[in-house]
Amino acid sequence: MLCEKIITSESVGIGHPDKICDQIADLILDECLKQDENSRVACEVFASSKTITIAGEITTKAYVDVVKCAWKVLKPLGYLENDFRILLDINAQSSDIAKKVNINKNLIGAGDQGIVFGYACDETPQYLPLSLVLSNEFLLKLTNLIRTKKLLGYLYDMKSLVSIDYQNEKKPQIYSIVLSVQHTKNKKKSIIKKEIEDIIINPILKAHNLSSKCKKYINYAGDFINGGLFADTGLTGRKIIVDTYGSIANHGGGSFSGKDYTKVDRTGAYFARYIAKNIVAAKLAKKVQVQLTFCIGLSKPILLHIETYGTNSISNEKIFNAVLKTFNFDLYNIVKTLDLKKPIYHLTSVFGHFGKGNLPWERLDKVGILKRISRSE
Predict the structure, then answer these.
(1) Where residue 219 sits, what CATH number does that domain have?
(2) If you average pLDDT over residues 95-118, what whole number do you get?
(3) Which end of the chain is more exposed for a tag (fewer CB within 10 A), N or C?
(4) With 90 as the cut, is the pLDDT of residue 168 above it?
(5) Which residues, at least 6 apart from 290, have a Cβ–Cβ distance to it below 8 Å?
(6) Which domain holds residue 314?
């Protein structure tokens, strides 16, 4: 069945090949920042067959054992040291780019051009689309039960897909749920279906006051014994929609993991989310998309666009002006405001970059200012 009112979001687990690569890249970034907060990192990880390649550009005063970083991610997932060979192809940052980025002590230039988007809505306490929140919650709960050995016979490569029917926008309903999880050879499909429904899906739906009477496709293709890096290749930055807002908002196309704070496709996206979330929390609109456009070498974005989808409680012009007066768009200030020199990036590499309360771009510290300024406009 197809319906224009049905919206779908996806999530993938910590053992998914692409997410393994994202975790390694962000752990390397964090290890560099721990020792040298001015590290310039653009780390890419590619995994195929029995080889993992760590590549990219890194300029830092830190000494980081990147192979050790990789094994910090791989071993908890059950991999052994003779499972892979790890190759390195790491170079320094281009001197041409460095000159444009490192302007002076209090001024940072954008490390590249780019378009980024931030989104927020009042649909959930996380200010994220319900379909995305549910997709992540299903896999996070399952992962925690596997880690603590409270649910046996499952492995960490998993995916979820949640579709929400908005024909009645005041009371959305679950249309369908797809969940696939790698398992051991002796795990029966009937047991998997029952456990996933009874222990994972239905309790979470109940907590959200949603009916469990929907289509559920659990390991629908049958056995999922061969998974992870033994079954598929992995690459950093291939799950950009999973990392952000599901299928709801736009995306500029730039990935996040393995990139330091001078890379505006990451930093700009975090700042855009920070703005959008505070707008919605201030009740200036029920859902908002913030677009920022950057030019390489410039310290501020060259364009700001705010879309409220007709849900604004005051004029879009007033919202725009309030945002300009509330937020400082200088890249150096963005980095300082959002604590982006700190080694916090491993917290983002799985289950999304947004909606986690311990991340600085999720703060709601501009709500009062936005309300006050918007009233005076």
Answers:
(1) 3.30.300.10
(2) 71
(3) N
(4) no
(5) 117, 118, 119, 272, 273, 275, 276, 279, 304, 305, 306, 307, 323
(6) 114-122+263-376
